[in-house]
Amino acid sequence: MPPAAITTAIASIAPSTLRQYNVSYKLWWRYCSEKGIPVYTTQTEAVITFLQHLYTKTNAAYGTFNSHRSALALILPGDVGNDSNLRRFLKGIKRLRPQKPKYQTTWDPSRVLEHLKTYFSHHPLPLSLLSAKLITLLALITGQRLQALHLIKLSQIVGDEQGFKIFIDDTTKTSIRSGEHPCLHIPYFLDQPAICAATTLTDYMDATKTLRKNDEQALFLCARKPHHPASKQTLSRWIKRTLEKSGVDISIFTPHSTRHASSSSAKRTGLSLAIINKTCGWSNTSKMFAEVYNRPLRDTFAFGRTILQTAKL
Predict the structure, then answer these.
(1) Which residue in 4, 30, 76, 281 is deepest, having the highest Cβ count within 10 Å?
(2) What is the CA radius of gyration of the chain?
(3) pLDDT in tens, 252-266
(4) What is the pLDDT of residues 93-102, one digit of tens each?
(5) Hey, what domains does the chain have and what are their CATH numbers?
């Protein structure tokens, strides 16, 4: 790679991926230093031995080793990543330690919505509660990642009598995979104004209008002074706090589980897979929803309750 083009080439890799690769490089550097192996070796045998060393020392699953392979393939000469012996070795790890979905079950969005209804009696809502309510509603009704919701700007919000359209122009993980930038549709739900996301969005923009400095465009602001744009971690904390108050087990489910809960709920109610894929940013041929996100409701008492219900009254 010509030195002048290195920065451009590195831009092809997402910052989060580079941070993930950095873990692999630290392990590889330490291993090479201890074994006296050149860091930029051309020997695939050394790479396989290194991965076997990690396999013996850790309980990491297949996905971790595949990430190590990708990281090393980026810096080692030749086509190490496609070496037949390395591919065979990784296939063995995949069988021995298969990658498991993070969640086997999910939670019912209705329990969170019922909790959010209780906020309706407090008007006007404190900014902290209004912020948490809005980000939770948007996460549920759009099925989007926090990454996309964090990127929302006021200039991208277009409203009419039916609701709002929010255009995300920045690159997201789903836009890279699908080739399309997300467009979030936020309908008015006047049958139940207490959980109407469009009304909540309007209330939030009105409440933060005087708090914005220098024509700040980021939708979400910190609830405390000096009201800087909220980070993705702050949005995550707001959702986590809301889930906990709603009775969702946050020792198991993270804020990202809103994506599992909403998409699984949509499927249970009969919404077509095409619409679910389109809304969540997956392609029509993607198996992501079926393999990772479509999960049954978590009900640890289902079996016992079913047996007891067979008894005659």
Answers:
(1) 281
(2) 24
(3) 999 999 999 999 999
(4) 999 998 777 8
(5) 3-96 (1.10.150.130), 109-293 (1.10.443.10)
